[in-house]
Amino acid sequence: MAPIPLFTSPRALSPFFSLHSSFVLHNPQSSNPEPFKKALLATFWPEPVACRASRRPPASETASLPTTDPSVVEAEGTGAAAPSPGERFLEHQHARARAVLILKQRGSKEKKKNKRGKAVSSSAEACCYGCGAPLQTEETDAPGYVDPEIFELKKKHHQLRTILCGRCKLLSHGHMVTAVGGHGGYSGGKQFILAEELREKLSDICYDKVLIVKLVDIVDFNGSFLARIRDLTGANPIILVVTKVDLLPKGTDLNCVGDWVVETTMKKKLNVISVHLTSSKSLVGIAGVISEIQKERKGRDVYILGSANVGKSAFISALLKTMAKKNPVAAAAHKYKPMQSAVPGTTLGRIKIEAFQGGGNFFDTPGVHLHHRQAAVVHSEDLPFLAPQSRLRGQSFPVVSKSNLTAADNVGLNGFSIFWGGLVRIDVLKVLPQTRLTFFGPRKLQILMVPTAEADEFYHKEVGVLLTPPSEKQRELWPGLQSVRQLKIKFEDQKRPASDIAISGLGWISVEPFGLGVGQNEFVDCKGELHLDVHVPKPVEIFVRPPMPVGSGSAEWYQYQELTEAEEELRPKWYY
């Protein structure tokens, strides 16, 4: 009889691969992927097995053969129970889909592991509880330095988490010790880490399921908002916290400010679930933030994000102080709270804070250093000039007396230039007779007005003297006001300011009629267009925005948006 070739099905061969392939499939962390690949190839593309059939042996020969279990000799599913070609095809497709899914899961885990490699390794090492810098005993001037004897003693008693590094001790005594350089860093002083490296430490947060608490400085709302915050947060929910509201001018209605913040935030199209107006100094609004975190956390970790010097460490301290009244875990964590200082870039690494009784952590994170803020332009010694220390007071130009102001008065700004320290110059090219500019920012910066024809000579003579910052020491290295932006602003309503001109990292200038808020005086027609040239250092940004309602008369002119029920439902709520 001629030989008959027989081909076994994948199902028939499956027992031969079941043990080895199942081991690999259930062990995706196996360092040797070759057995896994061979098993898949054998499953999807089995080699044909040829068998030669000879004559049937006589009964006398078969009688002497040992008897065996038919289930061992015959492959499962052969004969009448053999699967049809369609069943084999479906089985192949299902096996292929399962294998692709396993490979995809394995690849995503490896990719995520690579993305988080630096963060995982950094969290495992001992860090200063004040700034998050890894502890070290070699470089005395570098962040994280600890005396070797103290380090060994604390290590012996498992108390490394209670160590404050030398740099943090200097910061706690008021020293201005900068550590961040690069694009967005600070000139002068030592630069131990680049701003780009600090941002890279936050790049893996978008891969985790966490709750984001994003901080924004109300004095520098546009400059500190972080335009590309989605790159850091991903699709995670955001609680927006507006800090330093205690610095707003006296008589400000926080209802108007809250609505203004929500309206501005809606244009950013972020996943913001609520907005909170807070003050870490007076603890205004802190209890509401804690309640919202407890409601939305759902077992997740909480990350505090924001630009440099926005007040993250002070905010966490206020949170822990308030939580400590009812939470013993938070009370213990408050003892080793992050360091607070006026120096941008105080926090240099993630600081893990155990503050919840049911598990979960707070994470204080390094501030995002933005190159377009004034802090990235001035010398490190001049940084205190940019930080408001008390409640803001608007300083208006031209200076007029409210008691003597009448509609017939013609006190104009045309042809004048106004200097805001040595950082901003505004040339008034064309304005209406009753236009005034009101400056809101740190009081340490002098505001001076001179004729535009004399402005260049005045600046070169007085920069570093009357016009500071820069200080006199840095005058020779100061690049000057290299960037000029031409603004055209329309006055449409005589009863409210036209707009705000916000200077990133400094404050804002309100453009308004100077009869606004006087009360008994009549207005002349103030509709028209204003032309201004604003000079700032490169690459400081200038924002033109709707006017922020601050001051005692803001509630009278601020207009709330009329919303439908559907729009109201989508709009985040605000609290204070």
TrEMBL record:
Residues 53-86 are annotated as: Disordered. CDD domains: YqeH. This is CP-type G domain-containing protein. Residues 195-371 form the CP-type G domain. InterPro entries: G_CP_dom (IPR030378), GTP-bd (IPR006073), NOA1 (IPR044229), NOA1/YqeH-like_C (IPR048422), P-loop_NTPase (IPR027417). The lineage of its organism: Eukaryota, Viridiplantae, Streptophyta, Embryophyta, Tracheophyta. Residues 61-70 have a biased composition (Polar residues). It holds the Pfam family YqeH-like_C.
